[in-house]
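Explain this fold:

***
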Amino acid sequence: MNPNRGCTGFVGRPSFLCRSSWRRLQAIAIAILLLFPIGINTARAVTQPASGTSTAHVYLLRGVLNIFSLGLDDIALKLKAQGIPVTVANFASWSSLAEEAAAQYKSGRLKTIILVGHSSGATALPDMVAKLDQLGVPVKLAIGLDSVFRASLSGRVGRYINFYIANGAGTPVEKTRQFQGTLENVNVQGVPGVGHMSIEKNEIMQQKVIKEIDAVVFGRSVTTSAAQKPQQPAAVGAVSSGAARATSARN
């Protein structure tokens, strides 16, 4: 049972309990990062500046402790291999990252902002979207991986995908009247091996995240909607057109 499912969110009109819990969570994370040097060193473990003519940047937000969202580092390395600039940071950095992204956007060096967050990092995404909107900057794509608190979404974002585990700690995201864009809440509890502590490390989920990012950065079409059933492993050696169609339908 998730004790936070009754909360209204952080960006819309949050309850005092949710707001105080969120602030305590931020305070704990910041205190831990200050107490342990390793936390400070890994706060932005992967930062790749835009190369060449790239005008896109992906910001990946870890959860409370950097050691629990290391799957985001794997995603970052895979994006980097494709030439996509990335920054990996603890969720407590969301406000300063928003200001950094806004400055880059207004200078013309950055045109496409993509956000990805896991756990508390996913919970912080609506706040980052709202702040960027207040700064006059839109978000092209935001992907949350199992937000641990119920959050409300406002601001401008082309597409917001909230992957959550309905029978676990995750919750759907709600949109407010101030939200402009598309919101998709996708229950991925049926993905093999997925859990709150493994969702960002799960190969199937990593592929989903990267496909969505590639579709924005490179204009590649995503063959399946994120709202469809979770991807299932294709049958080995399926060569007939019927098998190929069945495999495509499962993906």
